[in-house]
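R.M. (postdoc): so does anyone remember the format we settled on? I'll just put the structure tokens first.
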């Protein structure tokens, strides 16, 4: 079982990764959240503990699912992938969804070996 400290470190790391992926400095990100750069820095380094409510605000500001910011546990990883995939699909255009559906159908028809995860 992970320690609470390690969980907060992982959350901070994921917040930093998402922030950087969006090309935001700590200062810009803090401004988007109406907070200080120091507070964001402390969250990313797990010096401050983020509340669930604030984590939702962060996820909204980064246009990602809260599940992207939370470390997955071993057991519900399958649920995590399903929910993350649904979140990503919700942000696709109809044309993109059609392409993805066609690709998945094609992919599942391929004989690539391996065992099913179901």
């Amino acid at each position: 079982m992970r320690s609470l400290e390690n969980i907060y470190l992982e959350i901070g790391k994921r917040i930093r990764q998402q922030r950087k992926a969006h090309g935001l400095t700590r200062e810009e990100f803090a401004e988007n959240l109406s907070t200080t750069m120091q507070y964001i820095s402390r969250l990313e380094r797990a010096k401050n503990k983020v509340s669930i409510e604030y984590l939702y605000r962060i996820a909204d500001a980064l246009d990602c699912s809260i599940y992207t910011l939370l470390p997955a546990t071993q057991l519900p990883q399958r649920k995590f992938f399903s929910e993350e995939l649904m979140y990503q699909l919700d942000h696709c255009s109809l044309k993109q969804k059609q392409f993805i559906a066609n690709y998945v159908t094609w992919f599942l028809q391929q004989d690539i070996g391996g065992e099913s995860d179901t």
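R.M.: ...and that's the designed sequence above, right after the tokens. Also worth knowing: The longest helix spans residues 4-21. The chain has two domains: 4-69, 77-109.
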